[in-house]
Amino acid sequence: MKELYASGKGKDWVPVPIPDFDQDRYASSWTYRGIQFSGKDCNDGDATVYPGRNAQTGDYDASEDTNCNGIWGTVSTESDADDSEEDDFLMPEAAQTYEQLFCSQTPSRGIMSVGDSATAHFRLPPSYITADDLNSTTYSRIIETVLTEVDWPQCSWSTGWGNSTMCPYSPLNVSSIYQRMRDRNLCMHRDYVNAGVNGASVNNLIEDGIVVPSNYSGNMLAIPPRYKVDGPSTVFFSMVGNDICQAHEWGGWTDVDTFAQKALEEMQYLDTVLAPGSHVIIMGLVDGRVLYDTLKDAQHPIGTTYPAFYDYMNCIGISPCWGWMNTNETVRDASSERAFELNAQYQVIIQNNTFDNFDLHYFFPDFAGIVANWTASGGDPHELIEPVDGFHPSQTGNMLLAATYWDWLLVNVPDALGDINPNNEAIQAQFADQGGYGF
C-alpha cells in the first residue's frame, strides 16, 4: 500500500488513516485521518469488519459486530424484546439476531462528504494567537491539532458527531446531517466518512492525465470500498471555494471549460465507486462576498480590523482567498461572478447526463441568507465566521448550514435521508449508546 502512504501531497498521496492495520481505510483510534474523519473500525485486524458493512449476510452478526454499529448477538426467546408491549418493531424468531431484528428492514445508508477545508471544518483556535490567552496549557493539544490537519470533522456540518465539550463553543448544539440521519435510524451508527481535504477544489480533485494538479488533494482515492459493495449511500460533493480562492491575482480562477470537464470526470468516477441507488448532492461554490460584508467593521483577534488583516495577508502572499478576502470591491465582485459561472456548469451536468449508480442534485449554500437570518433573530453575525482566518464557517456557522441543508433535503431529496427505523427505542434499550465513538 505504498501508494497510499507516500509522504507529501504529490501524485501518490491519498488521505487515508495511518495506522490502518487491515487496510480497509477505517481506523480504530484518534490518529491521522482516524475516527474523527470516519467511523471507528471495531476490529482493525480484520478487513471484513468495518463501519457500514452489510451485516445481513453470514451469521448476521450473531457472534461479532461486523459493521461496528454496536448491534450484535442472538435474540433469546426469553429476551425483553419478546415481553415488550410495543407492537411497532419486528418480533424475533428462533435464533434470530439483533441485527436481523432491528436493521433488516432499515439498513444503513452511509454518509460521505467529499470536499475541502470547509467540509473538514478547518479551525485554528483563537487562543493560539491571542497574547492574553497564552498560558502553560494553550498548546497542550498541539499534536492532536497537527494530526487532524487543523480540521474538526467531528464537529462539522456533514459528519459531525462530537458533543459540546469536544467541539468549539457555540450557542447551538452539535447537530450535523449525519447525526440527524442517525437519529432516524440507529442502525447507521458510525457509518460516516469525511473525505474533506484542505485546499481541495474541482480543479485538483483528480489527476489530469499524467499531470498532477497543484496541491493534488487525493480525496477520491480515499473512498473506502464499502461504498461500492454494501448498499446505497448519500454523498455530499462540496467544493465551495478553492476554484476561486486558489487564484492569487486577477483572472487566476479555475476557467469555466476546465471546471466543467473536471466536474464531469469526477461524477463519472463516483459512478464507479458507489452502489446503485445512491444519491449525490453537489454543494455549489459560495458567494464569498459575505466574508467582507460581515467582518468589515469587526476587529481581528490580533487587534487590527479585518480589512487591514486581509490587506496584510494578501501583501505577503498567504491569504487563503485573495479574491474574496480583498478590500477591492471590484475583485470581490469578479470572484463571485466567476463562481456563479462555475456553478452553472453543475446545472449543465445534471441536465445533460445520467449515471448508473446515483441520481444527482444541486444545492446552493446561501451563507449570506444564513447570516441575515441569524442577525434578524438577534444573533451576532461575527459568530458565524472563524475569527482567526476570517474565512471558514465557525462552529455556529456549521450548525446553521447543517440545519438549512437538512431542511432543503427534506423537501428536495428525502430518499437521501433514509427511512425512519421503528426499532430505535428497542435498540437503545438493548444497546444503550452502541459503543459510542471510540472514547
List key phrases describing it.
alpha/beta; five-stranded parallel beta sheet; 439 residues; Rossmann fold; single chain; 14 helices; disordered N terminus
Characterise this structure.
- By secondary structure, the chain is an alpha/beta fold.
- The chain has a single domain (110-417), classed as 3-Layer(aba) Sandwich (Rossmann fold), CATH 3.40.50.
- The protein is 30% helix and 6% strand.
- The chain contains 14 helices and five strands.
- It has helices spanning 80-83, 98-103, 117-120, 142-147, 177-184, 226-229, 242-245, 256-273, 289-295, 306-315, 329-352, 367-376, 395-412, 424-431; strands at residues 110-115, 192-194, 233-238, 278-283, 358-363.
- It has a five-stranded parallel sheet.
- Helix 8 (256-273) packs across helix 11 (329-352).
- It is globular and about 70 Å long.
- It starts with 79 loop residues before the first helix and ends in an 8-residue tail after the last helix.
Widest sheet, order of strands: 2-1-3-4-5
Order of helices and strands: HHEHHHEHEHHEHHHEHHH
What is the distance, rounded to the nearest whole angstrom, between the alpha carbons of the first and last residues? 28 Å
Task: Count up the helices.
Answer: 14
Query: Uncertain segments of ≥5 residues (pLDDT<50)?
Result: 1-8, 81-92
Question: How many domain modules?
Answer: 1
**Using DSSP, what is the number of strands?**
5
CATH architecture: 3-Layer(aba) Sandwich
As a percent range, the share of helical residues equals 25-40%
Structural class of the secondary structure composition? alpha/beta
Radius of gyration: 22 Å
Q: Biggest sheet, in brief?
A: 5 strands, parallel
What is the CATH class name? Alpha Beta
Question: What's the shape?
Answer: globular
Oligomer: single chain
